[in-house]
Design brief:
GO cellular component, one term: nucleolus
Strand content: under 5%
Number of domains: 1
Structural class: mainly alpha
Organism: Tetrapisispora phaffii (strain ATCC 24235 / CBS 4417 / NBRC 1672 / NRRL Y-8282 / UCD 70-5) (Yeast)
Protein name: CTD kinase subunit gamma Ctk3 C-terminal domain-containing protein
Distance between the termini: 37 Å
Pfam families: CTK3_C
Number of helices: 13
Shape: globular
Number of strands: 0
GO molecular function, one term: cyclin-dependent protein serine/threonine kinase regulator activity
């Protein structure tokens, strides 16, 4: 697979994250990575029946194409709506988790993956968070809580570069946004310096910069809440509303993800519930039922409605 083909396939993976997010979230390195075919090929055909594992694709192909993948990830993410970029952050975090597991449990021969983990992925966290929470864009703060949670996870994987006390202070600042004075908060949005930290593998600096960025966005959220409560103009918010097509796009992503989940969870196996009627029993009861609805019928309908609602519940 040459560089051009690798880029095209990885872009396809990134654009399909909304459909594969449930697979990514349920990934368990201890149970899934053992079955990785690290030298094998990945089926990336266009058929709808061939599901591509986004994590295995990256882990399998990153040795030769990690630079292409990294550039594609940032270029593709920058073209997304800021609310949709959270899927990329979750994917990024899971890649770090998987590579960390492989490196820690390897007896040798994975030096390239150690390099990718430490000097590429971890060293670029600040740049990724700048895309997750761009300046002068209030709506991106909707994802702030999840961004903080993912930062905590990655910090633990990296060996707690940021101390527990600093993490605690950041969380406390986020949780009491509605009661803390915002008079000392700068209206200027913090921007990650355009430096190449990854050239020296200085991922500690990347984590420190990300912490500064998150604290700044927590302050901007606090300022927004207080000014909104006081019905004052909001100087740090760009004017304009989300485009209708963005809303429709997010609704379509949710619908597609829900459809994928229902393929595995919508049905009840008959052999586990003998009280279920067979098709013939149902037809017989239906034919012998009068056309009038009684209180008992309505209660039964409500019970069936509740059961159907439960069958659509997802994680």
């Amino acid at each position: 697979m040459d560089s051009f083909e690798a880029r095209l396939k990885f872009i396809q993976v990134l654009k399909s994250l909304s459909k594969t997010l449930n697979t990514i979230l349920t990934y368990a390195p201890g149970s899934n990575s053992d079955s990785f075919n690290l030298s094998g090929s990945i089926n990336m055909s266009g058929s709808k029946t061939a599901a591509v594992d986004p994590i295995q694709f990256y882990v399998t192909c990153c040795d030769e194409h990690y630079e292409d993948f990294q550039q594609c990830l940032f270029d593709t993410t920058s073209k997304m709506d800021s609310l949709d970029r959270l899927n990329v952050l979750i994917y990024y975090c899971k890649l770090i988790e998987m590579l960390k597991y492989l490196v820690d449990n390897s007896t040798g021969g994975l030096e390239s993956k150690k390099h990718i983990l430490n000097k590429v992925l971890l060293a670029s966290i600040d740049k990724l968070y700048m895309l997750m929470l761009p300046g002068n864009e209030i709506k991106s703060l909707v994802n702030l809580n999840e961004c903080i949670n993912r930062f905590v996870d990655m910090n633990q994987l990296a060996g707690n570069i940021i101390s527990d006390e600093e993490m605690k202070q950041m969380r406390q600042a986020f949780q009491r946004h509605s009661s803390t004075s915002a008079t000392q908060i700068s209206e200027a949005w913090y921007t990650v310096p355009d430096t190449e930290a990854d050239t020296a593998g200085d991922y500690e600096k990347s984590f420190r910069t990300t912490l500064t960025l998150l604290n700044d966005r927590i302050g901007k959220q606090r300022l927004f809440y207080q000014q909104f409560a006081n019905s004052e103009p909001i100087p740090c918010q760009e004017q304009g509303t989300a485009a209708t097509q963005i809303t429709l796009h997010r609704m379509e992503n949710d619908r597609e993800r829900h459809k994928k989940l229902k393929e595995h969870s919508w049905f009840i196996k008959r052999d586990t519930d003998r009280s279920m009627l067979s098709a013939n029993e149902f037809e017989k009861l239906w034919d012998n039922t009068t056309g009038e609805l009684t209180i008992e019928d309505l209660n039964n309908m409500q019970e069936l409605h509740d059961i159907s609602q439960q069958s659509y519940l997802t994680m």
